[in-house]
Design goal:
The complex is a heterodimer of chains A (193) and B (585). Chain A is mainly α. Helices cover 40% and strands 4% of the residues of chain A. A two-stranded antiparallel sheet of chain A has the order 1-2. Chain A is globular, with a radius of gyration of 21 Å. In chain B, 28% of the residues lie in helices and 22% in strands. Chain B has 18 helices and 26 strands. In chain B, strand 8 (196-200), helix 8 and strand 9 form a beta-alpha-beta unit.
């Protein structure tokens, strides 16, 4: 009995380390610079995704809004939350751009057109970004210590992944449904620079 | 007490347990991803993604370019209203070319030229050789040499006419790479479905392969076919020269006369080719006069254009060569003959590979897409036009603007030459302005001068609109040289990719060298009957010199021809007649 006890204990320790310890150890967690609430903006201000995450006149996607966009409404406090006051004091008043950490940042060699997916294909933001728009707080940004990529790229907590396989899967499914989407097998240069 | 054996058992069990978790597999993936991001991997600059417009300066076609820029860095080039050629698509690589010239002694060049100008006499003149005439910079050179004692402006002969492919229903191409960079690619391919293309060429070039009919004529005999279809010589005589059947030549002549408007094109649209087109009643339809955008009235007193061949041998005490933009390449031996003993040669160039090899002083210049300037008229532009090459990135420090340098030698202030030219075009009130960002055209008379200039600098283009061609000219009657029967120079030299002289992205040059689809730079292809075995070492010789080559035996190369890849050494060897021989070493 004692002969196998250490093997079993080792297996259990390995399983524990691999399933519980490793996911915590592999990611470096950092808070976002501002405690931003998508929910408050959506509920109270009636904002839609594209009001802040806008397309430019030339059709390209502006991504995370700049301070100028935020300051358009928040030059002075609109409510009484501590988060808003802190934001105005730390960023709007000194004119300092918040260093947002992008959950969905793709590698430099990837070209992704928001315009094609949102405007032409009518894809909802949540299809890739999950239900971020209804969250009351911004999650900490979790970065893989080895690869340097965001944890969201892998897909977790019900969020869809944003890896190449995920893109290809979605395109294949859409193509099968006859939506006109490319089947994802056309050429490398459709998506890669 | 725990024994060492038990510790090993625990470690082994842990390893087995870990294998049943995502940890090791994830670490493998992460390590692979890390290897894509480690510090040694070049990382493109981040920044706002924007679209900018310019015009490609790699050939006179001057295609409109949509540049995708990340921050200030262009990362992808694409055509507007159609595709770009492979050279244009990779144009943004050129600033990083390993052959790029980065240093030059501007002070030394200025002093040497000033001394040569001071000592110049009619027998020892000062000349500017402009390899791409028809630009605003060309006008600056002409104005500058007019102000310099014994100044001469030299330029290759300009085409005798422009062509209108859209009007043609049958096109006979006498060896012109019509579908391979001869005209503006997007417009050529747009017009292509509407005309029947007959390609007369010794080798099956890419244009020949895409033509409706390929006439494999004897090397160098294309001119005889042109004369035959224009009725200047008989089909029987032409058949003897070209190696085609008499009936085939008669059939081609009939096709040109009976299937609607016809056009004959050749690599150089000389007055002889114009004469053949006049015989086919193409004037004002398929061939039109070359039109140039208006210039300020004060520029008209510029020096005349003189071909290099018209200069006396040994009559130039100083020569400035503008090789900053791709243009014609004259064999160095032809240029050298015109130089007086001890002559100063200053070359403006971006690359060490061209005339810089022969210069007293080579000054580095900006290269596309760093350089600012305008473009000459494309051969297939029936209207006058004015398009700017808008810089997409700033040039590195130490670059010289050739026009400003030459202008300063003559005491001219030419900083605003492009703007002055735009002012003259605007003042003419003619034509329309097209802006690519919104795809709109508007009449110039409805646009304010400042807005016109702003639109041109945002990548807009001005075109004059349709104009009356007037009466047909009377081209000089030139007797074409007979086919090469010289036993001393029994071969005709042809280049594999005429557009790829020097301005090629290093990436494309590498792919080309590694590919068997194109000839390697030091290889020459010969027919099996030439008597060489594959891989033989030989000398390629022409009246201008020679260079060592490796023979590639290729049955698709016709007897009497030697096919080589284009490169500066070959450009220095090629004369207009293309005479050559290959000698075993």
């Amino acid at each position: 009995m004692r002969r196998n006890l250490f093997i079993v204990a080792g297996v259990l320790a390995g399983l524990g380390a691999g399933w519980a310890g490793f996911p915590r150890a592999i990611y470096n967690s950092r808070p976002q610079p501002v405690d931003f609430s998508h929910k408050i903006h959506a509920d109270k201000a009636g904002a839609k995704c594209e009001d802040c995450h806008a397309f430019r006149e030339d059709g390209s996607f502006a991504g995370i809004p700049t301070l100028e966009k935020c300051a358009g409404c928040h030059a002075a406090p609109m409510g009484d939350t501590a988060a808003e006051k802190n934001f105005i004091a730390a960023y709007v008043t000194p004119g300092k751009e918040p260093q947002w950490l992008s959950y969905a940042r793709q590698p430099e060699n990837v070209y992704f057109s928001h315009a094609s997916h949102v405007k032409r294909a009518g894809l909802q933001c949540a299809a890739c970004h999950g239900n971020e728009g209804s969250a009351n707080h911004l999650r900490p940004y979790e970065q893989d210590r080895v690869s340097g990529y965001s944890r969201d790229i892998w897909g977790w907590q019900g969020r869809p992944g944003m890896k190449m396989d995920d893109c290809v899967d979605c395109h294949r499914r859409s193509a099968r449904k006859g939506s006109g989407a490319l089947a994802g097998e056309r050429s490398c240069l459709d998506c890669h620079k | 007490m725990t024994t060492r054996r038990e510790l090993f058992k625990f470690a082994g069990g842990s390893a087995m347990g870990l294998l049943l978790t995502p940890a090791p597999w994830r670490l493998i993936t992460d390590t692979a991803l890390w290897s894509e991001n480690w510090p040694g991997i070049p990382r493109p600059a981040g920044g706002e993604i924007r679209t900018r417009f310019t015009h490609c300066a790699l050939c006179p076609a001057g295609c409109a370019v949509r540049a995708r820029c990340v921050g200030e860095q262009p990362v992808a080039l694409a055509g507007v209203d159609g595709g770009l050629c492979p050279f244009g698509v990779a144009g943004h690589h050129l600033p990083y070319h390993p052959e790029r010239l980065r240093q030059g002694d501007r002070q030394q060049a200025a002093s040497a030229l000033a001394a040569a100008i001071a000592a110049s006499t009619p027998d020892r003149g000062v000349a500017v050789l402009d390899l791409q005439p028809g630009r605003t910079a060309s006008w600056t050179y002409r104005r500058a040499v007019a102000a310099i004692k014994s100044g001469v402006y030299l330029a290759p002969e300009e085409p005798a006419c422009a062509v209108n492919l859209a009007a043609a229903r049958t096109v006979l191409s006498l060896g012109a790479p019509l579908l391979d960079g001869w005209g503006r690619p997007n417009l050529v391919f747009r017009a292509r479905p509407d005309f029947r293309l007959i390609q007369a060429e010794a080798i099956e070039s890419r244009t020949a392969a895409l033509a409706d009919e390929w006439l494999p004529v004897a090397p160098g005999s294309e001119t005889a076919l042109g004369r035959a279809v224009a009725g200047e010589i008989g089909a029987h005589e032409a058949a003897g020269i070209t190696g085609l059947a008499e009936e085939q030549i008669s059939q081609t002549a009939r096709a040109l006369r009976e299937n609607g408007l016809a056009l004959i094109v050749a690599p150089e649209m000389t007055s002889e080719v114009l004469r053949w087109n006049l015989a086919l009643s193409g004037w004002g339809k398929t061939v039109v006069p070359r039109r140039e955008a208006p210039v300020p009235k004060t520029w008209i007193k510029a020096a005349p254009v003189i071909p290099l061949a018209a200069m006396r041998d040994g009559s130039l005490g100083a020569l400035v060569i503008d090789e900053s933009v791709p243009g014609a390449h004259l064999p160095w031996a032809e240029i050298e003959r015109k130089l007086a003993p001890g002559a100063v040669v200053v070359v403006f160039t971006w690359s060490r590979a061209g005339y810089a090899r022969h210069a007293t002083c080579a000054l580095p210049t900006a290269v596309y897409p760093e350089a600012e300037g305008d473009l000459p008229q494309a051969i297939d532009a029936p209207e006058a036009g004015f398009r700017l090459t808008v810089p997409l990135i700033p040039p590195p420090p130490g670059m010289t603007d050739p026009a400003q340098f030459v202008g300063a030698l003559a005491g001219l202030d030419i900083k605003d030459a492009l703007r002055e030219r735009a002012g003259a075009i605007h003042a003419s009130g003619r034509g329309s302005l097209r802006t690519y960002a919104d795809g709109k055209s508007q009449a110039v008379k409805d646009v304010k001068l400042d807005d016109f200039w702003k639109a041109l600098n945002a990548g807009g283009a001005w075109t004059s609109g349709t104009e009356d061609s007037g009466k047909p000219p009377k081209p000089a009657s030139i007797t074409a040289p007979a086919i090469n029967t010289d036993t001393l120079w029994p071969l005709r030299l042809a280049v594999d990719s005429p557009a790829a002289a020097v301005l090629v992205s290093p990436l494309m040059a590498k792919l080309s060298q590694e590919s068997r689809l194109r000839l390697a730079p030091r290889t020459a292809a010969l027919h099996p009957k030439a008597g060489f075995e594959d891989g033989a070492r030989a000398m390629l010789e022409t009246p201008y010199g020679g260079c060592a080559i490796e023979v590639a035996v290729d049955a698709s190369v016709p007897p009497g021809m030697v096919l080589v890849a284009d490169r500066p050494e070959i450009a220095d060897l090629r004369g207009a007649d293309g005479c050559a021989r290959v000698v075993r070493i």
